[in-house]
Amino acid sequence: MRELGIGLIGTGFMGRAHALAFNNARAVFELPVTLKLAALADADTERAQRCATAWGFAQAHGDWQALINDPKVDVVAITTPNHLHYPMAMAAIAAGKAVYCEKPLAVSLQQADAMRRAASDAGVVTRVGYNYQHNPMITLARQMIANGELGEIISFQGEFSEDFMADPASPWSWRCEVEHAGGALADLGSHLLSMARYLVGDVVSVCADTQTVHAQRPAIKGSNDLKPIAVDDQVHALLRFANGARGTVSSSWLKHGYKNHLSFEISGTKGTLAFDQERLNELRVCRVGQDGFQRLLAGPALPGYAAFSPAAGHQLGYNELKTLEVQELIMALAGQGADGTDFEAAWAVERLATAIRVAAKEERWVQVDAV
């Protein structure tokens, strides 16, 4: 088998999730290539070495460019803060290497456009970490919609909310800086926008409102030194889809009680389906003639599930979804799949998010293709 060398940049929450996913993928799937965890990079050299040893990577680098230059690395996985996605991905593409980048793709539409064009010109495989779409229950929902089980789709109502920034005393971080992140819309809402496009299709126009509820936060935990906040804490938008459906999306990182509330309801002329990521192994469906919702449980009959569990109701988790995403990436690199979100699709998500920001700023409907 051909060997693929994996290079991972970043050792935070997402870096660990990627490392687990690559290790899990080669353990649970019969892959057409052999995965080698070739190198790991972090700005903290000691942490890079410690994580490389713990996660099974052969080499540690204190400089991400050294990882990209490493001839043993074929795939560059980027799990750094958002503002670093652009320079790292562009360097990897210039080196002719595949890129697996966390979302959102970039901190500006201009950067995202340059990234997708460079990847296309270079002919390299790219994927972006919209892992929730790899849930077998989301695959089932998409199939039901495509098969016409809901009839003509007329509405999408979605929300992605968490509470990790609900406390105004929560300190400033890179997520609070426009140049580095993009607020709740970029951090959470991008997942929801990608999901809406994946299930219902292109969005043609938007109207929106955004709000920064906590205009200042402590510079560090417990500090009386306050730093101004310019990114949104919550966003609400109206959507018009190309197929005629209407939609709403909202996202907040201030909603007490929610930990990973990526939820949606999709209604058609023959029924409605509903999903909540906090109950990610369930899909609720109501068809014409039913008095209420039927609960569908994930099980081994759904693609991807049986690799982890032979029995229904035993449930997959976040790391299994990441592993399914990595499997799709590897199949694409082997020329045997094209289902994931590449840079082109991720750019379309960024264009939609940009249209929402313009609509909120200018208080009007905005055509997405005019952005």
TrEMBL record:
**Where is each Gfo/Idh/MocA-like oxidoreductase N-terminal domain found?**
5-130
Q: Which residues form the GFO/IDH/MocA-like oxidoreductase domain?
A: 140-273
* Keyword Ion transport part of the UniProt annotation: no
Name the InterPro entries on file: Gfo/Idh/MocA-like_OxRdtase_N, Gfo/Idh/MocA_oxidrdct_glycsds, GFO_IDH_MocA-like_dom, NAD(P)-bd_dom_sf
Could you list this entry's UniProt keywords, alphabetically sorted: Oxidoreductase
Its domain of life? Bacteria
One GO MF term, please?
nucleotide binding
- Work out whether the entry's keyword set contains Oxidoreductase: yes
Q: What is this protein called?
A: 1-carboxy-3-chloro-3,4-dihydroxycyclo hexa-1,5-diene dehydrogenase
This chain's source organism reads Pseudomonas fluorescens
